[in-house]
């Protein structure tokens, strides 16, 4: 059994993953698998059965690697100042706040890229190259996760959030000041790790994503009523806040894997459309979900937090809704009136259609990738396509 | 007259700079001068007179360039979201909050480096190279200024500052949320500009500086009483907060100018020691300055904000001061008691000695640079040495 430099067995043992009450065995997470088949020319036996594929939780393919990354991030932030380290560690509890979704998608994207080493690499060269490649993939996933969490923390301060992702947000638990510093700390660590990748294009893409995140939050915070009522403005802001980081990271992942600009753009399109579809479905859940999620939608960051895609579509059908919006939602009666318009409009249905469109575009981007003979690559692509379907079902 | 690509005349006209009531003429700022002498083999006539040198305001050498950078930064931050742009612009008022000190030192450092082009560059090549070099120097100064201001803004939030640098701080004027976003925005712009430099070492050095700034602020915010009473802890924090950015930027400036690692380390030493000397003198001013600055020292960020170098030296002489520190400074009587110990100790004098030591080390770093035949280079080095003397006089 080959041991990875970080001490993790490349044959990572039995993974028990729950999906619809069904437990199945996955001996190898895909990045390791891909390295393994590159190095030892073995073939994965794991995911060939189409029945298994249908039941596949797409993220289970990378569960082991994501745990490893979460663990590494927790160690990484144990810095010189213990109080800050504990604050930063707080948000890397896998499955709690951050959910590590970015890492999961990115690792799948990494293994969906057909990484080649020369047929006859210099002795030991192929092995070293493949390991280095895996390390860079992990590093990019970590960087993206750190940027995401840093932004999440700062947004929590700006939005006066007391809960994000189901648990108390960092600013609520530890105060705004420590939360601000924890965000800054993570962002600076992310940029340092990015510098270590020594790839200018990666830096430009991720730098753009960070700038977009800030711009998106500022657009949300400072919009005029006119801007709040514009679907174009809303979609631009949604791209900045919910799709730019994922799309630019996916593109970077493709470039780090030595792919062409064309393939990198498909990876970008996947990330962008997945992010948009996810946010649009989240907008629907604010209205159709649990009372808790409904409250979240209504009590969100701005007096106009209620104005997301469903209300904007309702506004197109019922222009008289504008008068209610102009009055604002400090008065709960105005929320009720807006909801009345929403329920008699096709707002929810049209938002779902738009989410489905973006979901399809994401799947189409995966399907447009050049064919691969590598089964692990195909499995990862399949998992990414399944993910596009899951997102619009919000399972 | 040669016109720079950005529309600024390389022969920048008459600069009227006030120093001790004396007005003098400086036809060329040094970076332009250096480019000019590189391109046209002319010699500056400006600063040869030693009497003039003695009266030189070191920053006047780069006044024109700094104004240009301040103007560029104001334009740069006019982004897609006008409210944020106005917030960011607010802090780039030259001579008010930011003072552009980092830019001034860095531009002097840039022109203190002996930048060479080949004797017979390809037609037009020397010109293009020199212009590109100047642009990169300006870019580094802008990046450093943006990082400094972003940090300044976030520190203002953490410290609950209502005044920084003599005017209302951004968080006080525009609220914590917009200030937080403005800081994030500037930091992301800085990293994007850094990516455009396409220099991995620059990215690593500036990335380290950003991380140090955050670590320093966190050390200040979260220190135990034991740590507050440690001179070693204090100096480490002071390096992170007040010297790391300048030292790493000075080093980067040297590297961008194609200097050796040895020269780059001398530039680093200059920045580090200048930053430390500046902060130590600032610590003294908190006790000996105007009532306003005294108030600033006492009402600063933490309950232990009074514990800077002078008090730490006093504590060495009078260990019984520790009991007062342990009680904290919520009670003004404890401040009075601490001051009594300070005035009968050598705390101020020893802090000044330490500042002088660091000032001398900065000057020694400049004096250790390899000799240069270029008069403009020598003038800039001289200005940097004068600056080390000015700082300990706090003129």
From TrEMBL, chains A, B:
<dbReference type="InterPro" id="IPR008949">
    <property type="entry name" value="Isoprenoid_synthase_dom_sf"/>
</dbReference>
<protein>
    <recommendedName>
        <fullName>Geranyl diphosphate synthase</fullName>
    </recommendedName>
</protein>
<dbReference type="GO" id="GO:1990234">
    <property type="term" value="C:transferase complex"/>
</dbReference>
<keyword id="KW-0479">Metal-binding</keyword>
<dbReference type="GO" id="GO:0004659">
    <property type="term" value="F:prenyltransferase activity"/>
</dbReference>
<keyword id="KW-0808">Transferase</keyword>
<keyword id="KW-0414">Isoprene biosynthesis</keyword>
<dbReference type="GO" id="GO:0008299">
    <property type="term" value="P:isoprenoid biosynthetic process"/>
</dbReference>
<dbReference type="GO" id="GO:0046872">
    <property type="term" value="F:metal ion binding"/>
</dbReference>
<dbReference type="InterPro" id="IPR033749">
    <property type="entry name" value="Polyprenyl_synt_CS"/>
</dbReference>
<comment type="similarity">
    <text>Belongs to the FPP/GGPP synthase family.</text>
</comment>
<dbReference type="GO" id="GO:0006744">
    <property type="term" value="P:ubiquinone biosynthetic process"/>
</dbReference>
<keyword id="KW-0460">Magnesium</keyword>
<dbReference type="InterPro" id="IPR000092">
    <property type="entry name" value="Polyprenyl_synt"/>
</dbReference>
<dbReference type="Pfam" id="PF00348">
    <property type="entry name" value="polyprenyl_synt"/>
</dbReference>
């Amino acid at each position: 059994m080959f041991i990875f430099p970080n001490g993790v067995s490349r044959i990572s043992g039995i993974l028990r993953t729950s999906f619809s009450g069904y437990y199945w065995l996955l001996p190898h997470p895909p990045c390791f698998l891909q390295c393994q088949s590159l190095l030892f020319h073995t073939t994965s036996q794991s995911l060939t059965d189409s029945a298994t594929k249908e039941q596949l939780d797409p993220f289970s393919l990378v569960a082991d690697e994501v745990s490893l990354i979460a663990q590494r991030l927790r160690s990484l932030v144990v810095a010189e100042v213990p109080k800050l380290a504990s604050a930063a560690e707080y948000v890397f509890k896998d499955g709690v706040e951050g959910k590590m979704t970015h890492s999961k998608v990115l690792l799948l994207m990494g293994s969906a890229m057909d990484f080649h080493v020369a047929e006859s690499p210099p002795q030991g060269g192929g092995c070293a190259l493949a390991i280095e490649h895996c390390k860079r993939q992990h590093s990019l996933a970590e960087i993206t996760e750190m940027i995401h969490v840093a932004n999440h923390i700062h947004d929590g301060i700006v939005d006066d959030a007391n809960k994000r992702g189901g648990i108390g947000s960092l600013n609520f638990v530890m105060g705004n000041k420590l939360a601000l510093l924890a965000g800054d700390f993570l962002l600076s660590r992310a940029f340092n790790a990015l510098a270590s990748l020594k790839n200018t294009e990666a830096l430009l893409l991720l730098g753009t994503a960070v700038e977009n995140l800030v711009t998106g939050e500022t657009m949300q915070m400072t919009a005029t009523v006119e801007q709040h009522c514009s679907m174009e403005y809303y979609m631009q802001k949604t791209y900045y806040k919910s799709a730019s980081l994922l799309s630019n990271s996916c593109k970077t992942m493709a470039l780090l894997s030595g792919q062409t600009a064309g393939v990198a753009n498909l990876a970008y399109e996947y990330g962008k459309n997945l992010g948009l579809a996810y946010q649009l479905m989240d907008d629907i859940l604010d209205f159709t979900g649990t009372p808790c999620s409904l409250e979240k939608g209504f009590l969100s960051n701005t007096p106009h937090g209620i104005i997301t895609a469903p209300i904007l579509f309702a506004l197109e059908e019922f222009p008289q809704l504008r008068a209610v919006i102009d009055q604002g939602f400090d008065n709960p009666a105005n929320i009720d009136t807006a909801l009345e318009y929403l329920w008699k409009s096709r707002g929810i249905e049209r938002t779902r259609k738009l989410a489905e469109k973006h979901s399809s575009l994401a799947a189409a981007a995966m399907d447009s990738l050049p064919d691969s003979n590598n089964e692990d690559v195909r499995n990862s692509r399949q998992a990414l396509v399944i993910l596009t379907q899951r997102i619009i079902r919000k399972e």
